[in-house]
Design goal:
alpha+beta; 7 strands; seven-stranded antiparallel beta sheet; 33% strand; elongated
């Protein structure tokens, strides 16, 4: 694979997680059926580097038992993605491809009941941001306590991270310009522009 697809910065990582927070969470070596899709939020150091992830899950989720026995997890984030046709490139003799961005993260997990309310409130705040009347968990009143009892929060300390940002960095200027003019998915188009910014300046 072209090495340019693995050139990215801390801000690219944080932006992808913020825009596409739903991740596959796996316990290494466990059956595939135990993998779960969970919304995750990142935590960062003073330099903006990803240091951890915060989330919650149902207490009945098999991952709870698996992480208690072996607190290591893999998190797989899929960002913008889509098929790219020769029509989008403006060349009939151009081979179609698939553009995408993805993160693969390994982490040490700590499940802790005291993290539950904090993890849930942080996720709600992030997802409700920008609404005219942002919803808050207090509006559930007494139902909130019952819901908290059914879930549990956790945090994950990142131990390894690898990303692939395959977003037209290998295309010539003519094809790149055509993609940015014609590609119909605004999110994927924006990421192609972002990852080729130095070539567009």
């Amino acid at each position: 694979m072209d090495p340019r697809f693995h050139q990215y910065g801390a801000e690219d990582v944080s932006r992808l997680i913020a825009q596409f927070p739903l991740a596959w969470v796996l316990s290494p070596g466990a059956p595939a059926a135990t993998a779960s899709l969970l919304p995750m939020l990142g935590t960062y150091d003073d330099d903006g580097m990803l240091t951890g992830l915060v989330g919650h899950m149902a207490r009945s989720n098999p991952l709870c038992t698996l992480f208690a026995a072996a607190p290591t997890a893999h998190f797989l984030f899929t960002g913008p993605q889509g098929y790219v046709s020769p029509e989008h490139a403006g060349k009939r003799n151009w081979g179609p491809t698939w553009n995408y961005a993805a993160l693969r993260i390994e982490a040490e997990v700590r499940i802790d009941e005291s993290l539950t309310a904090q993890a849930l409130d942080r996720l709600v705040t992030a997802c409700e941001q920008g609404r005219v009347q942002p919803w808050t968990s207090s509006e559930l009143q007494e139902r909130y306590t019952g819901m908290l009892g059914a879930i549990i929060g956790f945090e994950a300390r990142v131990t390894a991270l690898d990303g692939t940002f395959k977003l037209a960095q290998d295309e010539n200027a003519e094809v790149l310009d055509h993609l940015l003019e014609t590609y119909p998915d605004a999110a994927l188009r924006a990421w192609m522009e972002r990852m080729n910014g130095s070539r567009l300046a």
